Amino acid sequence: MAKTLYDKIWDAHVVHEADDGTCLLYIDRHLVHEVTSPQAFEGLRLNNRTVRAPEKTIAVPDHNVPTTLDRANGIENPESKIQVDALDKNAKDFGIHYYPVSDVRQGIVHIVGPEQGWTLPGMTVVCGDSHTATHGAFGSLAHGIGTSEVEHVLATQTLIQKKSKNMKVEITGHLRPGVTAKDITMAVIGATGTAGGTGYVIEYCGSAIEDLSMEGRMTVCNMAIEGGARAGLIAPDEKTFAYCMGRPHAPKGAAWEAALTYWKTLKTDEGAHFDKVLTIKGEDIAPLVTWGTSPEDVLPITATVPSPDDYTGGKVEAVRRSLAYMGLTPGQKLSDVAIDTVFIGSCTNGRIEDLREVAAIMKGKKVKDGLRAMVVPGSGLVRAQAEEEGIADILKDAGFEWRMAGCSMCLAMNPDQLAPEERCVSTSNRNFEGRQGRGGRTHLASPAMAAAAAITGRLTDVRELG
Ligand SMILES: CC(C)[C@H](C(=O)O)[C@@H](O)C(=O)O
Ligand code: SF4
């Protein structure tokens, strides 16, 4: 029977299938961060268990770490400090791979995994973090798990799962200038809503997806979870193989050749069945921004703020509340909305190509007077590369703060936070109430759009900058 890519990876990892269809899946890579792992390690201790496959378990602190240059002095917030200290100790006690804050390879777990060659095609990858979907860009089955599952995977290297349905999201044609991977993924959520992917694993395909670099593909898969999907994935191709080759933990020599032969089989067969299909023309996607407090609240930058009257059902009240929270008025042009802050970073858009894109726009330009603008590389290695390429200097000259790696202002778990009513254009993936700080107002956008906003001090169509 013709199989989808998801079917193939699933079948290759089933250890046991119960009568009701519940499966025990083998897990190839377990990524761990400080927020969702302390109780899991504690559970192992209490039961006198060890980590089943320490060589497949990789930990890095990211959510709670400060991103200021003086962070070697330690973490001030007691709760954050406890979590990071616990990970330091757990990594040592259980003998798993670890990138501490002091290591140049430290960064956001979803950036470190691919960068170090831990994430490879055909694998099952889990992490106690919803944005694990990012790793699906390599043609791996990657998704978030809860803390009790983290303990289960640590102890057994397996996970109890029920199979999801197959959904295909095809982006045909090609993107227009000024439109990026971030706009693709936001357009998909705009079309399906935050529950459109519930119960599905999405395979993204089509020429506009093939056109993307690995980094762009990671941006697309990263937000699969915001559309409700269990995971998002993209069939590996020559770009995938080239990205993986030579990474520290990628196979070498004969093992590489054998892996490559297998990886080339990782694509959906002709005629395989998808339970749901969404097709979007690449040419129809415009640079997008969010106006509300859900990632589905997306509009082209050329649009105006919607009115609750434009909606029906439960969304009417939700829109009213969103607009009040966001301090926006129906009918207002999005491009007239003045901003206070620009945040460039996160596991959605904190990779080197994102920073290159911002630098290309900022070169010779300045961040608008009075604006707070921050670039937080996704890993220490991204930071080092950006410094080597002269990107850091361009960004600093333009008026951006140049930070150390971490989740930073993507979520308010560390000192980088918005003040109440502070309005931010952010390259991250969530715009929920209070996500970037209590009362903070988030507009999600691509790095290019964030750079454009940094120059003008308002939501701005990057295509206008010329
Ligand atoms: C803290 C963590 C569990 C959470 C997640 O699961 O995604 C965070 O990374 C986020 O982006 O909200
Ligand atoms: S960068 Fe943001 S989305 Fe990504 S793992 Fe960190 S908090 Fe979650």
UniProtKB/TrEMBL annotation:
Binds 1 [4Fe-4S] cluster per subunit. CDD domains: IPMI. GO terms for biological process: L-leucine biosynthetic process. Residues 7-457 form the Aconitase/3-isopropylmalate dehydratase large subunit alpha/beta/alpha domain. Its cofactor is [4Fe-4S] cluster. It comes from the Bacteria. InterPro entries: 3-IsopropMal_deHydase_lsu, Acnase/IPM_dHydase_lsu_aba_1/3, Acoase/IPM_deHydtase_lsu_aba, Aconitase_4Fe-4S_BS, Aconitase_4Fe-4S_dom, IPM_dehydratase_rel_enz, IPMI_cat. Keywords: 4Fe-4S, Amino-acid biosynthesis, Branched-chain amino acid biosynthesis, Iron, Iron-sulfur, Leucine biosynthesis, Lyase, Metal-binding. One of its GO terms (molecular function) is 4 iron, 4 sulfur cluster binding. Its EC number is 4.2.1.33. Pathway: Amino-acid biosynthesis; L-leucine biosynthesis; L-leucine from 3-methyl-2-oxobutanoate: step 2/4. It catalyses: (2R,3S)-3-isopropylmalate = (2S)-2-isopropylmalate. [4Fe-4S] cluster binds at C347, C407, C410. Heterodimer of LeuC and LeuD. Belongs to the aconitase/IPM isomerase family. LeuC type 1 subfamily. Catalyzes the isomerization between 2-isopropylmalate and 3-isopropylmalate, via the formation of 2-isopropylmaleate. This is 3-isopropylmalate dehydratase large subunit.
